[in-house]
Design goal:
alpha+beta; 304 residues; 5 helices; 2 domains; Alpha-D-Glucose-1,6-Bisphosphate, Chain A, domain 4
Length: 304
């Protein structure tokens, strides 16, 4: 038994993705290899796909879990079964994983398929149509649960547009009220109207972006002008101070006439006396008290 799988992440809530996937009969409108999905009743359906050649089977639903999983198995025709699992990755992101097992045809037809790599081709087709499903969901209105609301239906690569659908699928589509000429015309007008609204909204966003960018440019330019003006003013002030300094030289202060020279009560020993007498004294002894000079001894009186 051959096994195939494909995965895709859809930018939509898990409930919406699950509900849109269960509309099997709409698959030919946006998938490329599904030619027919018609219903016998709510549990049984008939499928026709084109992979190298056309394959058909009847299927019955099984193992359905709302918003989590759908499954099926064939009861007639090509023997196959599969499951599709849905997993929420966030409020607006859903992972979709498809798993299919089928028994390849026996005899020369099966051997030819194996020789020409039908399995690899089927993998690519399965992934391609799963990507089509993701785009269909993402181009539907928020919260929409009917594929007919999506703008992606009937794209150029779909089986319906390429004329690959079966006669039974055409009959089913013709009997669908949503496929009536009036409904299709209304849908076309709605899509055009919504496209125009999106274009206008995008144009408004672009204009707002441009206005914001222009405002930021003007603010940046004003700030640059202010900084340049302040720099010029600062340089002028420096030059003016330098001119004054050159034109009015300041004489060096005589330490003997400074405030410190006449300081009293500064809190240190030097403040008890004037510093002028000791100005040239050895700094290592400048704080020593000045010793009073001894009076010279008078000569002894002359003896008579």
């Amino acid at each position: 038994m051959a096994e195939h799988s494909a995965s895709v992440t859809v930018k939509a809530p898990v409930h919406q993705v699950y509900e849109l996937f269960t509309h099997f009969n709409d698959f030919p409108k946006f998938m490329s290899f599904v030619k027919e999905v018609t219903y016998y009743d709510e549990q049984r359906s008939h499928w026709a796909v084109q992979v190298i050649r056309q394959y058909e089977w009847d299927a019955v639903n099984e193992d359905w879990i709302p918003d989590q999983q759908i499954g099926w198995r064939s009861t007639r025709g090509l023997r196959n079964s599969g499951k599709v699992k849905f997993r929420a990755l966030g409020p607006e992101r859903t992972s979709v994983d498809v798993y299919i097992q089928y028994t390849p045809p026996t005899g020369p037809l099966g051997e030819i398929g194996a020789t020409f790599g039908v399995n690899a081709y089927f993998d690519s087709v399965l992934q391609k149509d799963l990507d089509h499903f993701a785009r269909m969901v993402e181009q539907a209105p928020p919260g929409a649960l009917d594929p007919m609301s999506s703008h992606y239906l009937f794209h150029t690569d779909s089986a319906a547009v390429k004329g690959l659908v079966t006669g039974k699928q055409k009959e089913a589509m013709a009997s669908d009220p949503m496929m009536a000429p009036e409904a299709l015309a209304e849908r076309k007008a709605r899509i055009a109207r919504e496209a125009e609204e999106r274009r206008r909204a995008e144009e408004q966003r672009e204009n707002a972006r441009k206005r914001k960018a222009e405002l930021e440019r003007q603010i940046t330019l004003e700030q640059k002008t202010i900084l340049e003006r302040e720099a010029v003013k600062h340089q002028q002030e420096l030059r003016a101070r330098e001119t004054v300094r050159l034109n009015n030289p300041v004489a060096a202060l005589d330490p003997r006439h400074t405030y410190a020279a006449l300081a009293r009560g500064l809190g240190d020993k030097d403040g008890l006396r004037a510093r002028v007498p000791n100005f040239t004294q050895d700094p290592m002894t400048s704080r020593h008290p000045i010793k009073a000079s001894k009076p010279e001894a008078s000569a002894p009186p002359a003896q008579e």
